[in-house]
Known about the structure:
By secondary structure, the chain is α/β, with parallel strands linked by helices. The protein has nine helices and 13 strands. Helix content is 37%, strand content 19%.
Amino acid sequence: xxxxxxxxxxxxxxxxxxxxxxxxxGHEVVVLDDLSTGFREGxxxxxxFVEGDVRDAATxxxxxxxxxxxxxxxxxxxxxxxxxxxxxxxxxxxxxxxLTAMRGAGVRTLxxxxxxxxxxxxxxxxIVETAPTRPTHPYGASKLAVDHxxxxxAAAHGLGAVSLRYFNVAGAYGACGExxxxxxxxxxxVLQVAQGRRDAISLHGDDYPTPDGTCVRDYLHVADLAEAxxxxxxxxxxxxxxxxxxxxxxxxxxxEVVETVRRVTGHPVPEVVAxxxxxxxxxxxxxxxxxxxxxxxxxxxxxxxxIVADAWEFAQHIARER
Length: 322
């Protein structure tokens, strides 16, 4: 059955891919984005677009919407340390305004884009949802605050909500991919070296207690991530806040990513060793068992070379646009 959904932050990387999946499933999609970090060309064809702030969502929300999928957040860890007020105002204040607007419009289903940064430095891996939440920076803290806010809204006002905590998202889906400026994610940064746009990739530490000394991370294809959001819409239950981790369950080191980019692109990728970054855990890998059990989610694009190949194709497409 076709339904109408509001996708906040739908001009960004993940929001745009989710919006595309909703459209392909036959739904009506309205994208709300202020374009502060998103791109107008990222909004999928067929979606209605409203340029505006999530804090003004009450202007557009009405009972015709079946649910909201909420991606409108600032997500740069380093920036959050030097400008924490920006993250509290937008990520927390914006979500509070959105929840108020949803309550007023009678829209009672929410899927929230959360993050593995809520866990901080884990005691055990793979990380499960019951692990302690000890974020190490304002970005992670702001997302955790929103998760608490949503839990309260569900208990007090009957909201049906699912928070999806992502690990490292990568790859592309058709015309939707990463356009971050500045870019901070490893795979697109390494691809920029392959394109000749950067001289070398920096390995931030090569003495971690991992097989090759570099950090190990869980990389999830953005299309698998998008499919989880559609499943989450069906799994949301009134008065319940469900939290699920999303990852492919396998870890790849920084050096493995660099070597995979070399193989996929056929280009040299010089590397230099740089100092460790404060707060970088040696290993971050997700347990996605709850998502499999509660959502029926099974990621199918778990091969690192395939993830990199999709990202490379999109990077070349963007380069041709320039």
